[in-house]
Structure formats: structure tokens, C-alpha cells
Records
---
Amino acid sequence: MSLPKSVLAQGKRLLMEAALKLNASTRSLNALSLRELAREAGLNPNTFYRHFKDFDELGLAIIEEMTNQIRQPLRELRRKAAESVVPAHTPIASWRENPRLNLARATQVNRETVKLFFDYVAENPNAFILGIRELHGASPILRRALRKVMDDFARDMADDINELKLMPELSQDSLYDISETITREMFQLSMEYIEQPERQEQICIKAEKMITSLIMGSAVLHGHGAILMGALQMDQTS
Amino acid sequence: MSLPKSVLAQGKRLLMEAALKLNASTRSLNALSLRELAREAGLNPNTFYRHFKDFDELGLAIIEEMTNQIRQPLRELRRKAAESVVPAHTPIASWRENPRLNLARATQVNRETVKLFFDYVAENPNAFILGIRELHGASPILRRALRKVMDDFARDMADDINELKLMPELSQDSLYDISETITREMFQLSMEYIEQPERQEQICIKAEKMITSLIMGSAVLHGHGAILMGALQMDQTS
DNA sequence: AATCCAGGTAGACAAGCGTCTACCTCAGAA
DNA sequence: TTCTGAGGTAGACGCTTGTCTACCTGGATT
């Protein structure tokens, strides 16, 4: 949960961590009082002003740090997962040529990415609580910022699906729509994952199925049903 | 946005409406001050205590009213939409027998339900803002209550899909999972719908596609792909 | 060696807060 | 007709709040 050691002044980080903690356990950011925050951080109330103009600025700082921390690792994981089925730099057969192999790759990437994502959620629950809370919170500034974060995530996902050929070819728009939906759902589910530790495994499975269904359904809807059916039948008999 | 005329004391309704308004425009429920609320409602601060123990109780009252208002109409609409393709009391052919007709029915119900839902959102934006905000808010009580609301919605949806045979047969669990995902997504999208009036039509279409993809994907995943493909091909040539 | 200034503190202020007790009012039950 | 109790008000209480001005400190810059 702790923020990364960086060039941030100590007090600034203390305040950010206190905000994360209070936000998760007690109240949303905009219901937080400056003095309460300072108390939690063990600092003088005025110290807040040395680092932030207002709570939005604090929120933005937290969001930025968190985003930087998770965005790149997620992309790398997708690559690793894809390579674990087909070694890197192997020319990738088209879905039409080898539907079975491609489906296996996609399934593997799906499974591993979901797992990593939830691992990260479990390690940084407070960050996700804050993110999801403020995504629908009262501050338009934070809402906008978090929507952009999710948008970036979705774009990354779409790029990776494209690049790693994780599903039959699709228009850019449709692909992005799917990525957006998946991203939204994953963030939603991360709350359940945090709040119901005893159901974590089920939630993982649910997430995988949701993603698979969405992607498959979209493929069918765009005329790639036959390819998929081929892959699936071969898969079931193996 | 206004709450229904009912047996509620006037002051109670005034307070609930003030809470809706302030929540939507300014701050989340738990960041609301009692005096501010009373001011907005044009009442004495103490009047609050005559009706509610605390803000959670207020929130619960609002949520309950809203749920009663939308739950039944949604169910009825699904029936009407289904009947507009196949008249009531007609014995419904199985998907295997007549995939094309069933797909048409499902598509119609999908389209009309999405439309009705968003219409209702547009009429009661503040209620949805409050609902979505508090679904991820700081109060565990309201979170739990709203999760139950969404759960009920999902169950209704699953029941209707079953009863109206809106998709090929599926295990109850899988069907419920899908309904849950769709419900979650619809609530998410309702925020976008409210905040981006100029994109309302696109959001409708996006929602329809999302639902179709999910349902089709799930059908494929559970071995009903062939039926679907048949229906689709016949559809495309018509 | 002098200076600067980012980071942190101290105290004070008026304003707003939640909540208490006490009082008013008036429709309907007795 | 009297009584009662739900709905609403008034004033006061001690706290907490955000923010202001002023001051301290110690490492880097000159």
C-alpha cells in the first residue's frame, strides 16, 4: 500500500499515505478534513499548504503515482503471458490459419493478466478503493482524471490485443469499446475482490469468463464466429 | 427527479430531495452537513432528527423509494418488448427450432429495455448519481444496500431471460453472472449518459452491443455456438 | 560566511458544526 | 373537550474547522 520511495518530500508522502488510509477506512476524500488528515500524518495542519493547494491536488498526486506504478507492469505481463505459449519473435499465425493456437494464447494471456491485476489490487487495496470511490465521487477534477486513467488502460489493452493478435481482427472502434468495458469491469470487480477475500478465486474465474464471453461474443458479432467455432471444437476434443 | 407523492411527512420528503440535489451537485452524502441539508430544504436543523437517526438512514430511505419506482416498470417493459415480436401466450419455439425468431425477439427486448432504462436515468439523474456514488462510497451500510438493489435487478433480469427465453439455455449460475455484469455495466454507463448528453445515442448503441456480445459470447462458451451461427447467417442474408 | 528558501511549526481567529433542552402547534383520539 | 404526540422551531453549548500571519530550521547556493 505504501507509496514508492521517490524524490517526494517526506511530509508530502506522509500526507498522501494518510489520505489513502483515511479514505479507505472512513470517508471519501472530499469529506476529509485538513486537520484530520494532518493528525493522521502526524504533522501540523499548515504543512498541507506547503504541498497542495487543495484536496483535488492531493488526489491528483496520488492518482498519478499509482498509475505510473501499475501501467507498465501490466503491459509487460501481457507480453510475457503471450510468450509463454509462443516464444517471442516467432511469427504469429493468423487466426484463420491456426485458430487453436491463437485461442490458447489468448486464454493464457487472459488468465495471467487477470491474476496479476488482482494480485496488484490485493497489494494496494487502498489505492483502488480511492480510485473507484473518486471515479464516481463529488470532485469533477478527480472524476475526469480517473476516467483518463481508465481510458489509458483501455487503450493499452486494445493496443496489446492488436499487437499480440489476441482476438480475430476487428475494427479499432469495436476493439476499443471492448477494452473499455473490460477495464471498467475489472475495476468494479477489484472492489469485490478487496471486500470479499474468501471469494477471491471465484472472482478471478468470473472475471476470466466475463472477458472471454465479451471477446468471443464480439468476434461472433463481427463475423468471425466460424473461426472461433473451429478453435473451440478442436479444443474440446483435445 | 422529484420523489413520489406518498404518505411521507412533508419535511421528510423535503430533506430527501435536498439530499439528492446536494449530493448530485456538490458533495457525497457523508460529506454533507446536517445544517447545510436543512438550509437547502428550508427547515430547521433539528427537524432532521424527527425523521432520521443519521445520514445512513436518510440514504436508505431514498434508495428504497427509488428502487420501488423502477424495478417493476423494467420487468414489464421486457415483457412488452418480447410481445411486440411474438404476441403474448403464443407458445415460444425453442432456440434450436427457430433460432432466427428467437434472436429477433432477444434483440428487440435488448434494444427497448436499454432505451427505457436510459430514459429513466435521464428523468432521475440525481437518483442515479447518488446510487452510483454511494455504491462505492464510504458508508458500508449504503454500499451493502445498493449492492442488494443491483443484485435484485440482476435476479429480475436472469428470471426474465429465462422466462422469455431470451437466450439459449444456460446454467443458472452462468446466467446470473451475465445478468450481474450487464446490470453493473448499465449503471456505470448511466453516469456517462448523464454527464455526456451529446453522446446519448452512441451510449445506447454501445450498451446494446455490449449486452449482445456478452450474451452471445456466453452462449458460444457453453456450446450453443452452432445455434447462434445459424441464426446470424440467416439474419445477414435477409 | 552570508543568504536563501523549502519544509515545517505555533497560535489565533471567526465561522460552521452536531447536538442538547425547551418550547410551540395543531390534527385526531379519548 | 381535553389530551396526546408527531412535526417543527429557537437558542445555546462546546468543538472542530479552514486559513491567516509570524516564526523556526537546516541544507544548498552564492
Note: Residues 33-36, 45-46, 49 of chain A lie near DNA strand D (CB under 10 Å from a C1').
---
Amino acid sequence: MPPNLSYVPAKRPTQANGSGLAAVAERAGVSLATASRVLAGSTHRVSGDLRDRVLHAAEVLDYVPNASARSLIMGTRKIVGVLQHDMLDFFTATNIRALEEVADRAGWLIMLVNASGSVEKELRYLRMFRAERVGAIILMGSGLDDDGYRAMLTRELNGFVKSGGRVATAGRHDLPCTEFVPDNVAGAQAAIEYLLSNGHHRIGIISSPSAIIGTRERITGAKRAFAHAGVPWNEGLVVEGDHRRASGSIACEQLLTRNPDVTAIFAMSDEMALGVYDVAHKRGLSIPDELSVVGYDDTTIARDVTPALTTVIYPNSELARRAMEACLSDAPLEAAQLLIPCELIVRKSVARV
Amino acid sequence: MPPNLSYVPAKRPTQANGSGLAAVAERAGVSLATASRVLAGSTHRVSGDLRDRVLHAAEVLDYVPNASARSLIMGTRKIVGVLQHDMLDFFTATNIRALEEVADRAGWLIMLVNASGSVEKELRYLRMFRAERVGAIILMGSGLDDDGYRAMLTRELNGFVKSGGRVATAGRHDLPCTEFVPDNVAGAQAAIEYLLSNGHHRIGIISSPSAIIGTRERITGAKRAFAHAGVPWNEGLVVEGDHRRASGSIACEQLLTRNPDVTAIFAMSDEMALGVYDVAHKRGLSIPDELSVVGYDDTTIARDVTPALTTVIYPNSELARRAMEACLSDAPLEAAQLLIPCELIVRKSVARV
DNA sequence: TTGTAGGCGTTATCAA
DNA sequence: TTGATAACGCCTACAA
């Protein structure tokens, strides 16, 4: 793979219209250095007279500093590349706001990209971030449980770190960097325990893609809950979805058809839980009286559907905020995983049976 | 206002670890020029032998091109700055995906920022975009109906365009550039006409902030509908909200208290319509039997609440996509407004009275 | 306090 | 086809 970033020589657009720093300096009748010192907010002292002249010239000439030239000298820039593996619908304005708020406070810019679930695209974007000499990179979402994939990421990120970059993740990747991870095990365990404590024993599980680390953790949590309750684990009650609503419907149909005695369903995303609602609606099944449902994510929609969806909070904004703060602080970034709790939110979609 | 972008001289981070183009060239035993030609995907022909050597050296050295150096020469970069005035909740992953999809296809990157409703911040971000020498800027959302504001934006964008930048908006700003605007007049008119045709005459309106252009358009549309039906316009039935859910509740309370004979409410955002749902719920008012509701936006949530919300589509993704396509094409950008329809989606929240 | 000059990593021009 | 070399716009020792 050539390191060429499919760069196409752009039509050089008339180039600087002579309003660079040099123009400002000339108009103000000062040297380049003086102009720079005034305009770049250097600590170097400049006499009030010259300072005014430079400022005025800059204003008149509508001078806008060239960040590329600056970052070429500095070797880095105050931009954090945020890589979202797959921008699903539970990624909302709230998350962006969380990221943006922290970044802005520190005077940083965000470069947000979406790999749309493609590993190839992910690597390509990571490389772009490096080429852009961003100062930090944040990986959003849960990573793939695949050693080859992990190795490629590690290689790329190592190169980045070696050149002074900072990395953190918002979601588990099991990479040698600072990771803020949701407590998926506890979250799923709480969901299943809640269902069990309401008398449900035949619980269908609609899982997210099995390739994702978070999915395996949630399965672990579910198994743990069953084990604690002494209820045998039944692999046949697990159907895999893709996080999206439609897949929730399909999985639900399958589950209900093959196991008519299922009384409750745990879907690993609110979207898929809504897919279950759709099926229940179509079949004339009442939720929660005839079918109990628990979701995951606590999307804004969860409280507004009828019945309001009992679900587990996925602390997306919290993870994002923490990862951003870690990247922008000066504290050294240790390779560690910081667990953020996933709380169960009880609403109206589960009935006692 | 100094053009200084509050730039703080960062700690120069050990600078290039000697793995720049020069290192690659040296290792491959070729000149800088040759290495550049191979790595930058130039059309200039290079013999197979040298090409291989360069590629290999680049691989071994983990060479990543410096985009800053490139853009310093080119004077521009394939990045489009996307400015969201206020990232409200109806700005979703779908919009980002729409933007990203088009950009990625053309090999461009997106720099997404959120001004959080602050004019000062908006101008600051615009200036940052210019400093970054982005190739295009997209303004998302409806602009403020304020000449001073418009003048400041125009000044900033003119400077940008003069230096070769491309500008488009996704939402009405009434600026001298290519604008993709939603047909707010028709949208609001359709909403009110639908209510009127269902026998409602006392219709409360919860408007978005009056400072926003789109709000005025929607008021115009509403007035037009009343006029056509020969129903007198009643200013007292209009209460201003801020787009958010809570403001919808407050406005609804006010409306219902002051005008107990109101039979329907048109809220200019789905979020505020949900605020109306909240009030109805609290007051024990049945929707739509005792109170009809129409929203605006067609948020994903609209179809899932009970009763499903009748609303007007705000074609956010469509606007975004079109604006992005316009920016990335080579076609000259005329100052024009392209109207995108706002369709009424009839669901279950309106009853005949 | 001010100015001069060198260099950041690339690409483009022009000879060879 | 290849290789010197001059920009690109800016910051910062270092000298004045």
C-alpha cells in the first residue's frame, strides 16, 4: 500500500493575493519579525506605536494568518481528529456538543470523520489525520475483536504517538493507550438480572454484531446474570443484529417463531428494541403484558415511545468528553482502561410474569 | 478586533523525527524531486526501478506526507469547513453521513464546528476556517434576520471567496452566495391549511426564535393559510419558543391558560411539539381528541411517539448534501437560492373537530 | 526594542 | 527521466 493519500495536484488558486504577513509588515513599515510578533500573540514585547501600526495594517489588508505555514514550523496543530467507526443513529448532536465544548475551551478544532464501518476507510482516515499533523486522535465506538485489525491500528497509532501525538478512545478497543470504556458487562448483567427478578426465564437476546468487543462483553454480562440466578444459558435464544432497527425486527421474528415461549427480549441497542416494538405491534402483542423488552443506549427516543423503554445507559457523551479532556491535558497518557458505569434505567417496558 | 486567532505558541514537539521526504529520498538514493513525484501521485513519469525504491523506503520509514507543507504550496486544501450555528437535537448522524458521503467521494475532509448560537463564536470559527485555508465553507441552519450580522458574515465570506474559496449554505441566510433553502413558507402553510381543513380555527402557534429568518417565513406561510381560508390572524395566539422541548411546554401552558378555546397547536419544531405532548399528558388532555398537534422537522422520533406526530419535513440532509455537492463541483457558484420542498407528513396527532 | 536570516517539508521550474 | 534549486508563509534564534 503506497503511502500516497490519493493526492491530486489541485489547481493552484491564484496563490496568496499579496496580503500575507509580508504585505502587512511593509504597509506598517516594520520588519517581518515585528509584524509576526504582534499578530501571533508572541510574548516578545513590541512598542505600542509599532503594534498599533501593524494591527491597523492587518485590519485594512484583511490579513488572515496561514495556519499551514504555522503548523509547518510548529510541527503540530491544535486539531483533534475524531474517528467514528460507524456513525449510527445513537450518535447525536449531544455527543458532538460534548466534544466541541471541551475542544473549544482549549482553543482546539475538531476534525470529525466517519469510517462507515469500513476498516480500510478507517485506516485511510487515520493516515489522513497523521498527514494533517493533528495533535490528537480520538477513536469513538467499540473496536473490533480481531488481532489483525488491532495490529494495524496499533502500528498506525504508534507512529502517531512517536511523533508527539496523543491518543485516547471513547469505547473499548483493547489498544495500548488511554481508553475510556463503558462497563458493558455490568450493563448487560443488570438488564438480564432485572428481567430475571421479574420472573422471566426464557429471555431472547438480540445482540449487536459479534465482531465488536462490546458485544462479547455484554454476552458475558448476560451469562453471568443467568449463572448467578442458576438459570441455564441457552445459546439458541441469541440472535445477532446489526444495531439497526430493521435487524431488530428480523431477529425478533426469528426468536418468536422459533421460541414461542419467550416472554422477554433484551436488545443490545434501543434501535433494535424499537424493531421489536414494531414486530409486537404488527403481531398485536402487547408490551409489556405479553412481551417485555429491555434496550441498550438510552437514546433520547427511549422515554418517548409507548410504553417507555427500559434500557441501559450507554454513556457516549461522557466517554467522548473524558477522552477529549485526556487528550487536551498535559498529563502523560498511560495505557489504561477507565471504566464508566452503564446504569439501568427502569421505565415501563417490562412486566412481572 | 485583532486578527490574531488567540494563537498560543505551542511547545515545539521535537520536530520531524527525520522521516520526512528527504529521509526517504536519501534512503532510496534518489533526489527529493523524484521521491516527491512518486509519493505525491504526480503524473510525471518515473522509471519503475526508482519508483520501487522510493515506495520501499517510504514503507520502511513509515513516511507520512506533511499536509501543511503541501497546502502551503498549493495555497488551499481539500477540507470543507462546516459551520453549524446551533447544533440542536434534530441535527443527527444522518446529516453528518450525508455530508461525509459526498465529501469522501471527492477525497475531501470535513471540519465540523458548532457555534452554539453565539455570533461571536461563529465569526471566530469562520476566521479559523480561513486561516486553515479550507477550500470550501458550508453554513448550516437558518441565519439571523439582522443586517449587521449579515454584513459581518458577508465581509468575512467575501474575503474567503476572493482568495479562491467556495461557499454555500444549507438553510436560508440571504447572503450573496449559493443557498439551498427549505420552503418554509409552503411548509408552514401546509401545516396550518391541514389544521384548518380539519375544522380547527383557534390554532396556537409555538414559534422558533423570531430572530431567525426561517421563523419569519413560517409565520408568513401560516398567515397566508389563514388568509386563504378567510380566518382572521390572531397575534395573541403566537408564543415564541427556543426550539427546545422545555420551551414547547412553557409556551403550551401559556397558550392553554390564556386561550382555553384553542383546539390545535402548531409547533415549529418536533422537540417543542413533544413539549406540548408533555403538557397534554400532565393535564390529562388526550391528543388528538382534545388537542391536535402539528410539528416541524420530521425528527426520527416523530413516528414513534403516541400518537405519531403529524409534522413537516425539514429536509436537512438534502440541503446539506446539495450544498456539499455544489461546493465540490467545479461549476461556478452563482448567488442564488434553490428552494427545497417541505412536505407535510400526516400521522395521527390531528383530529377533525 | 527591532531587524536579519535561516529553516520547516513539499512541490514546481528549469536544466541536464 | 532525473536532479538542483527556488519558492510557499511564517516563526525564532541571533545580531544590532
Note: Chain B touches chain A through 79 residues (CB under 8 Å).
